[in-house]
């Protein structure tokens, strides 16, 4: 069976309950409804009963403040939704990486983390937080280059990662974990790992399939 066609039998179940993205979406919708309803009532029902200054402040609230809140809510919802694995996979060149993560036979770090349930949701973003709104300048530079190659249709397949991936992305979760700290080599190499003088992948293997093992996906859309 081709490795890309093998999917995990039981995927880790994401946490239930309210999400930040859902909350921001509700805030945006409520703000829009409140602005529209409020403006209609003020203009056609209460205008003659309101002081001039109150009328102006109410218009300011309905025309600028509440729409501004709605804009922030929708923008926040967009950024939050982009953290989902489905958002990453919507770009077809990412298919091999996402399918490998679901592959129960894969030995990559992404697949092993997924199988263990260590990251129950937003698996891509958990390790690539640099692409987020508060990420590093280096990550923004790399992300812009990746985006530019994609929109100009000038990338070569299988794609090659040309960017930076600091150990801090791994250490953010592992540095204080007992399974990490009790390993003698981790403690001995702590300074080198913290300073990126040695890469985590040197000992723990590739996070994703190697370039030769990934089939081109461009044919899927051309």
TrEMBL record:
The chain crosses the membrane at residues 26-46, 58-79. The keyword Transport applies. InterPro entries: Multihaem_cyt_sf, NapC/NirT_cytc_sf. Keywords: Electron transport, Heme, Iron, Membrane, Metal-binding, Transmembrane, Transmembrane helix, Transport. This is NapC/NirT cytochrome c N-terminal domain-containing protein. It comes from Archangium lansingense.
